[in-house]
């Protein structure tokens, strides 16, 4: 076995040259490429993160705008509701005022018409009352005794007998007058009645101011009325029908 | 093929310097490396082509292996250890080229590489831990073990050299014997086996050198 020291030395140098060769042309370029690649990756990552941040910021801004729009929408809705409520209240108040005014005007008109109607009715009533009084007083005449005698003279004998049969000692004929008769007038009435109904006919006299004027002859079961009250009663009954 | 791998195969002389076949083969490997690297990585690009990508895969695989052994950044050790693997791989595979013999099949080349590893172990140890602390480990666990520790350093370097040389030389012998006995076709499987052996020996040499350096810098228990 033999060692060639020149070969040993040359191979040592050769290997050192190989180390330099590989460092210069292999490791360094590859490390540089890897570093560049990592730098590019970092840059891409940072760019992506920047884009993500930008997107997040844009999203936040968009969300803020959405929130602002929503708040503005709610404010407008609230304002609109308030405006509508105010308008409703105002219109309701106006309508109520108009209704109140119309009601007041209607009441005033009704009151005026009522007053007018009452005035007209009062005039009609006055006229009617004047007419009734005129008719009642005109038919009674100035002498009730003549009217009663005329009536008794005008009835049939049968009717007259019917009246006579009602009378007796305990069943007198009662002469009711609006004014109190004096003795002279009572004698005139008694004379007129006994002449037509018989001499034994009992005659009594009473006063009733409600007759207003005239006389009423009350038999036990009949009455002959020649008074103003009776005439007024008949006129009012005729008006009701 | 020379008569014996144990004898230097001098091809010519430059002046008084004898140039052996191993040296010439090494120059060929260096030239091949230069051409391939210039062509593949003349203008390295971030978007690598096929050749650049293949070289990146090789370099990163070596760096990953070194990191697993050293448990630290492998790039400060890549110039020595990565170059060891690449050079040994190419040198061991030189047998497949006609007329070339593996430089590692002669004693001088493994001896030169082992010497460089021996010196590098101390260089990295001192640089990392400091001279006092580094040389102090020879006194551990007991100062009386100093001779044994020194002897251990020398013998492991010697074994590193002899392991590589012995495997490659024996392979050369086997190939020569098979060619002598069986002709041209039969040695082909042995050549393929030689490819495997060459890569395995490059890997073993590099890993052992890494372990030695790792022990020197305190990253590996040796």
TrEMBL record, chain A:
<keyword id="KW-0406">Ion transport</keyword>
<keyword id="KW-0066">ATP synthesis</keyword>
<keyword id="KW-0812">Transmembrane</keyword>
<dbReference type="InterPro" id="IPR002146">
    <property type="entry name" value="ATP_synth_b/b'su_bac/chlpt"/>
</dbReference>
<dbReference type="GO" id="GO:0046961">
    <property type="term" value="F:proton-transporting ATPase activity, rotational mechanism"/>
</dbReference>
<comment type="function">
    <text>F(1)F(0) ATP synthase produces ATP from ADP in the presence of a proton or sodium gradient. F-type ATPases consist of two structural domains, F(1) containing the extramembraneous catalytic core and F(0) containing the membrane proton channel, linked together by a central stalk and a peripheral stalk. During catalysis, ATP synthesis in the catalytic domain of F(1) is coupled via a rotary mechanism of the central stalk subunits to proton translocation.</text>
</comment>
<feature type="transmembrane region" description="Helical">
    <location>
        <begin position="6"/>
        <end position="27"/>
    </location>
</feature>
<keyword id="KW-0175">Coiled coil</keyword>
<dbReference type="GO" id="GO:0005886">
    <property type="term" value="C:plasma membrane"/>
</dbReference>
<keyword id="KW-0138">CF(0)</keyword>
<keyword id="KW-0813">Transport</keyword>
<keyword id="KW-0472">Membrane</keyword>
<dbReference type="GO" id="GO:0046933">
    <property type="term" value="F:proton-transporting ATP synthase activity, rotational mechanism"/>
</dbReference>
<comment type="subunit">
    <text>F-type ATPases have 2 components, F(1) - the catalytic core - and F(0) - the membrane proton channel. F(1) has five subunits: alpha(3), beta(3), gamma(1), delta(1), epsilon(1). F(0) has three main subunits: a(1), b(2) and c(10-14). The alpha and beta chains form an alternating ring which encloses part of the gamma chain. F(1) is attached to F(0) by a central stalk formed by the gamma and epsilon chains, while a peripheral stalk is formed by the delta and b chains.</text>
</comment>
<keyword id="KW-0375">Hydrogen ion transport</keyword>
<comment type="function">
    <text>Component of the F(0) channel, it forms part of the peripheral stalk, linking F(1) to F(0). The b'-subunit is a diverged and duplicated form of b found in plants and photosynthetic bacteria.</text>
</comment>
<feature type="coiled-coil region">
    <location>
        <begin position="45"/>
        <end position="72"/>
    </location>
</feature>
<keyword id="KW-1133">Transmembrane helix</keyword>
<dbReference type="InterPro" id="IPR050059">
    <property type="entry name" value="ATP_synthase_B_chain"/>
</dbReference>
<dbReference type="GO" id="GO:0012505">
    <property type="term" value="C:endomembrane system"/>
</dbReference>
<dbReference type="Pfam" id="PF00430">
    <property type="entry name" value="ATP-synt_B"/>
</dbReference>
<comment type="similarity">
    <text>Belongs to the ATPase B chain family.</text>
</comment>
UniProtKB/TrEMBL annotation, chain B:
<feature type="transmembrane region" description="Helical">
    <location>
        <begin position="173"/>
        <end position="196"/>
    </location>
</feature>
<keyword id="KW-0375">Hydrogen ion transport</keyword>
<dbReference type="GO" id="GO:0042777">
    <property type="term" value="P:proton motive force-driven plasma membrane ATP synthesis"/>
</dbReference>
<dbReference type="Pfam" id="PF00119">
    <property type="entry name" value="ATP-synt_A"/>
</dbReference>
<feature type="transmembrane region" description="Helical">
    <location>
        <begin position="12"/>
        <end position="37"/>
    </location>
</feature>
<feature type="transmembrane region" description="Helical">
    <location>
        <begin position="109"/>
        <end position="126"/>
    </location>
</feature>
<comment type="similarity">
    <text>Belongs to the ATPase A chain family.</text>
</comment>
<keyword id="KW-0813">Transport</keyword>
<feature type="transmembrane region" description="Helical">
    <location>
        <begin position="202"/>
        <end position="220"/>
    </location>
</feature>
<dbReference type="GO" id="GO:0046933">
    <property type="term" value="F:proton-transporting ATP synthase activity, rotational mechanism"/>
</dbReference>
<keyword id="KW-0812">Transmembrane</keyword>
<keyword id="KW-1133">Transmembrane helix</keyword>
<protein>
    <recommendedName>
        <fullName>ATP synthase subunit a</fullName>
    </recommendedName>
</protein>
<comment type="function">
    <text>Key component of the proton channel; it plays a direct role in the translocation of protons across the membrane.</text>
</comment>
<keyword id="KW-0066">ATP synthesis</keyword>
<dbReference type="InterPro" id="IPR000568">
    <property type="entry name" value="ATP_synth_F0_asu"/>
</dbReference>
<dbReference type="InterPro" id="IPR035908">
    <property type="entry name" value="F0_ATP_A_sf"/>
</dbReference>
<keyword id="KW-0406">Ion transport</keyword>
<keyword id="KW-0472">Membrane</keyword>
<keyword id="KW-0138">CF(0)</keyword>
<keyword id="KW-1003">Cell membrane</keyword>
<dbReference type="InterPro" id="IPR045082">
    <property type="entry name" value="ATP_syn_F0_a_bact/chloroplast"/>
</dbReference>
